[in-house]
Design a protein that fits this description.
The chain is an all-alpha fold. 81% of the residues lie in helices and 0% in strands. The N and C termini lie far apart (32 Å).
C-alpha cells in the first residue's frame, strides 16, 4: 500500500507525459475506435486484475496501473488486492498439477 501514494502523487507528471506520447496516443485512439471507450476501460481493469491475481507477476505492477490510471480510493484498492490475491492462491490450490 506504500506504492499507492508514491505513484499517485510523485509520478503524476510522468504518467501524464506518457499519456501524451504520440505512439501511445495513437494506440489509445485506435483501441477506442475499434472497441469503444467503455470496453477499453474494462480491459484495463481486467489487465490490472490479472497482474495482481497472478502469483508469478508482481502485484506492484497491477497496483501501479490502477493507482496511476484510475481514480480508485486506497481502501478500495486494498480490498481489491486482497480479494484478487486470495483468488489467485485459491486457483493454484484447486488447479490439477
Amino acid at each position: 500500500m506504500l506504492i499507492f501514494p508514491v505513484v499517485r502523487i510523485s509520478f503524476q507528471k510522468e504518467i501524464n507525459r506518457v499519456k501524451r506520447h504520440f505512439v501511445l496516443k495513437t494506440l489509445n485512439h485506435a483501441i477506442e475506435w475499434s472497441l469503444g471507450k467503455r470496453l477499453k476501460h474494462y480491459l484495463m481493469w481486467i489487465f490490472a486484475g490479472i497482474l495482481i491475481a497472478s502469483p508469478w507477476l508482481p502485484d506492484e505492477a497491477g497496483m501501479t496501473v490502477l493507482s496511476g490510471l484510475t481514480k480508485i480510493k486506497p481502501l478500495t484498492l486494498a480490498i481489491l488486492c486482497f480479494v484478487l490475491n486470495t483468488l489467485g492462491i485459491f486457483i493454484l490450490l484447486v488447479a490439477p498439477l
